[in-house]
Amino acid sequence: MRQKLVLIGNGMAGVRVLEELLERAPDRYDVTVFGAEPHPTYNRIMLSPVLAGEKQFEDIVTHDRAWYAQNGFDLRAGQRIDTINRNAHEVVAADGSRFPYDRLVIATGSHPFVIPVPGRDLPGVITFRGIADVDAMVAAASDGKRAVVIGGGLLGLEAANGLLARGMTVTVVHLMATVMERQLDDAAGHLLRRELERRGLAVITEANTECIFGDSHVAGVRLKDGREIPADLVVRAVGIKPNCALGKAAGLAANRGLIVDDRMVTSDEAILAVGECVEHRGQSYGLVAPLYEMAKVVADQLADVGDSTYRGSVTSTKLKVTGIDVFSAGAFGADKESEDIVFRDAARGIYKRIILKQNRIVGAVLYGDTADGARLFQLLRAGEDVSDARDTLMFGPAAGGAAPDPLEAVAALPAEAEICGCNGVCKGKIVDAIAAKSLQSVEDVRAHTKASASCGSCTGLVEKLLKCTLGDAFQAGSSVKPVCGCTTYGHDEIRKLIRAKEMRTIPEVMQELGWMSANGCSKCRPALNYYLLCEYPGEYRDDAQSRFVNERVHANIQKDGTYSVVPRMWGGMTSAAELRAIADVVDRYQIPSVKVTGGQRIDLLGVKKEQLPAVWADLNKAGLVSGHAYGKALRTVKTCVGSEWCRFGTQDSTAMGIALERATWGAWTPHKVKMAVSGCPRNCAEATVKDFGVVAVESGWELHVGGAAGMHVRATDLLCKVATAEEVLEYCCAFLQLYREEGRYLERPWPWIERVGIAYLQKKIVEDAHSRGALHARFRHAVSFTQKDPWAERAAGTAAHEFKPLAEVIA
Amino acid sequence: MKMDWIDVGLVADIPPMGARVVRSVDGDIAVFRTADDQVFALYDRCPHKGGPLSEGIVHGRSVTCPLHNWVISLESGVVEGPDQGCATQISVSVDQGRIRLALPRPARAAHG
Predict the structure, then answer these.
(1) Can you give the three-state secondary structure of A688-743, one letter per residue?
(2) A629 in helix, strand or coil?
(3) H-assigned helices in A38-130
(4) Mapping DSSP to helix (H, G, I), strand (E, B) and coil, where does residue A605 land?
(5) Are residues A102 and A246 in the same domain?
(6) Dihedral, A784, A520, B75, B46 alpha carbons, nearest 10
(7) Cβ of A293: how many Cβ atoms within 10 Å?
(8) Which of A73, A603, A739, B19 fits a disulfide with B32 by CB distance 3.0 to 4.6 angstroms?
């Protein structure tokens, strides 16, 4: 007599078991199949193309009712099983009918993960799991309506793309910093995000959903930072969890999912489980390939053939968004012994990374060109030693291992991209001149086009254009020193390319310019962070991990690991109340040293890191704020007492110093900036060895720039003379902005001025009022975002993790 | 020496490409998290002049000491480049996002 097999779950895993069983023992069982959805089986992973309108539901049906009938399977689609009665070997349906079994297979799949936010059940809030969800989305989608997708993983992005294709305005909100972070590394995540944004998706990362709001229907999503995104439709796609309630209720061992052994048998020998509802060796899967591998083992068990076992799966993922090729397999996080092989082709938007461990592939991430995915995945699964093929691994057996070409970013620039800002020369003009006039050198280009003839910051780009245009015929070695070993580009080239290609993040710059290391080094990361901060004020998100410790924690690290704290004393002026507050702080926190600095400030030395927020809070109470003594920023404005007290003073230098410091504090600069204002040419404030020095004379103010009094001593160059205090402020801001925009990271103003010449500064700041006004306006715009006391922010709890240990281990 | 695995917190508590300190009777321990979420631990002393490595910039599998820019391998503690020396390593295990350090017995953790 035939045995009775009951299958609960008519999804891809369950049906795969039936197919495998047909191949092994078609006559062994009378099979009854229960499915909660009233449909024949369909290919769930093809729901995305259905949502996007590229396929119809009929196209993705894999097994119609005729198939079940043909094979003698009793399909009960839409009939839900409520109970498994293990003692009686029977399952009980919702309508009370009972079905006996000899073997039972549970394939109940998964549920969408429920996000713990209010409003998640409002009408108009749906998940993306089954065809019913797709129908609901299609019904809700229409031109001009707004959708928010919560979750920037595989499922969320596919849903978002589908809704976009149906004419909706779509915003993806994602908790993590990069999209699809479980499958992609930063670089690939960045490329994907940029492509999705180019298609019109809005993507908000590090977005924590506070609630979904609306009265009778969803009206929008509110984030924890207070932002509200209006929405007519909200899709919850934050992941899945195994649906194992039925098995659990029957007393089967379960954790996250139903626990199965390597034979796919649950804690009850008569019951097997397969698919997303399963937990095998602590692992649950949400992808199709593992289900198929499990189904084979289940079928072997049911057919009683062989002793096959399931040992877990290495998974690979592809994003099903038309025109975007993304592939990920194995462990891209890898571990201590792993090595990376990285290939970047900025021009074609390709990124490939292969992760090796002991000469075996353990992971791969491909973006833009996934043709090699299958080959690499095969090598990964086979665990073959690839040491002999390492050179060609990235390009396939046919290729000879071409290295990425660092010229590509320049070659890919459009003809209208500006190369020389000083003389307004674009790429097209230079390339045409090289060809038409057979130019051979940077000097030739200079003579014929004026490019690189002024400040010289585009020299490296001009060299690369010669190389691109002439090929090997251009032999001259580069005169430009790369920023560090991670790149072939120099500082000026990188800044110009950031602007020309509108690059907005550090990973993007590294990708586009073919960085040779995974995430830079301690030389290039702070430089890139500064350049982006300067280029996109108020918009670029400062990357704390790319800051030197002093700028990250807003205090100066000392040789013993303690910190020094210097409060701002505007123009070097202080008061009894401030001094009293400082004295109290010194006593309260037992600060070992108090020092008066050369810049007319008071330095509290030997403060422990954990004490910093409390010290700052106390100083704040007396009105004292950060003095930025730790920053590549305005440090101090030193003053003499001026005409208020001094018998020689010609102008109120103290008031001028205070006004200058109030106007310019908090601006990040390539290196530190020190200023001074002297009330007469006796120059007691030593203004002529400062980066920007002001010397009062009877008729107004002399403005001096480019002084230094460190390892190198240099007297300032006279920039110009102005009549009024307002002009001093305007010229100073314009000077600082020009330095911010054109000085190289870690280059003080004086070497920059020696490089470009004082005449260049005079042209930009003194002679051209329009240029000065524009520089001044850009400076004001930039500081409008940064003139906030970083101490007050941290005393109030910002970056709290910086100031306390992770744990204390006590004996 | 008998070692115990001590739970010191979550990977998520450390910023990517950052570090946090664990205080211990044998001195501070720097626990690093790389861009690809690998976790490493070294005693928080640069072999050069004892600088706090936990405050350095983390890049690839290395950290640059904030005092004099020595570069130390997180994987081995060995100083990279022309300089010579080695920082003391501590074994790390990460399980379900929780970090455990192998520390000499007896020791107990209290979270800060």
Answers:
(1) HHCCEEEEEECCEEEEEECCEECCCEECCEEEEEECCHHHHHHHHHHHHHHHHHHC
(2) coil
(3) 47-51, 57-60, 65-70
(4) strand
(5) yes
(6) -60
(7) 18
(8) B19
Beta bridge partners of A481: none
* N-terminal to C-terminal alpha carbon distance within chain A: 69
Please report the domains of chain B, with CATH numbers, ordered by start residue: 15-89 (2.102.10.10)
What is the tally of structural domains in chain A?
Answer: 6
Measured distance CA(A363)–CA(A379) in Å, rounded: 10
Q: Which residues contact A222 (CB under 8 A, 6 or more apart)?
A: A209, A210, A211, A212, A213, A228, A229
Domain containing residue A341: CATH number:
3.30.390.30
Which residue is listed with tokens 């976790």? B39
Question: What are the residues of chain A with a beta carbon less than 8 Å away from any beta carbon of chain B?
Answer: 177, 185-186, 332-336, 517-522, 525-526, 544-550, 552-553, 557, 559-561, 801, 804-811
Same domain, A596 and A656: no
Tell me the Ramachandran region of residue A78: left when phi exceeds 0, alpha when psi lies from -120 to 50, beta otherwise.
left
One-letter amino acid at A795 equals A
CATH classification at residue A179: 3.50.50.60
CB-based contact A806 B31, cutoff 8 Å: yes
Residue for token pair 């440090």? A635
Contacts of A546 in chain B (CB under 8 A): 17, 57
Considering the domain architecture, whether residues A523 and A376 belong to the same structural domain is answered as no
Answer whether B43's CB lies under 8 Å from B65's CB: no
Q: What is the pLDDT of residue A155?
A: 85
Min distance B4 CA to chain A CA atoms (Å): 12
The beta strands (E) that lie in A9-59 are given as: 29-35, 41-42
pLDDT of A165 reads: 86
Domain extent for A421 = 408-541
Angle, alpha carbons A248-A249-A252 (nearest 5°): 40
Q: Is A421 helix (H, G, I), strand (E, B) or coil?
A: coil
pTM of the model: 0.61
Question: Which of B23, B29, B59 faces A525 most closely, judged by CB atoms?
Answer: B59
Residue of A nearest to B40 (CA): A336
A596-620: pLDDT as tens digits: 999 999 999 999 999 999 999 999 9
How far apart are the C-alpha atoms of A110 and A126, rounded to whole Å? 16
Answer whether A51's CB lies under 8 Å from A322's CB.
no
Say whether pLDDT at A400 is over 60.
Answer: no
Starting from the edge strand earliest in sequence, which strands make up the sheet with B3-10, in order?
Answer: B3-10, B98-104, B92-95
**Predicted confidence (pLDDT) per residue in A315-325, tens digit:** 777 777 767 88
The CB density around residue B1, as the number of other CB atoms within 10 Å, is: 5
CATH code of residue A432 = 1.10.10.1100
Chain A residues in contact with B27 (beta carbon < 8 A) = none
Tell whether the model's pLDDT for residue A159 goes beyond 80: yes
**Mean pLDDT computed over A113-132:** 88
The CA-based dihedral angle spanning residues A733, A735, A741, A744, taken in that order and rounded to the nearest 10 degrees: -130
DSSP string spanning A272-315?
A: EE-GGGEEETTB---SHHHHHHHHHHHHHHHHT-S---------
Per-residue model confidence as pLDDT tens digits over B41-59: 999 999 999 999 999 999 9
Global ipTM: 0.89
Nearest CA in chain A to B38: A335
Sheet with strand B29-33: strands edge to edge: B89-90, B39-43, B29-33, B18-24, A807-810, B108-111
Give the 3-state secondary structure of residue A758.
Answer: helix
A6 contacts A91 by C-beta, under 8 angstroms: yes
Residue with tokens 């992609």: A184
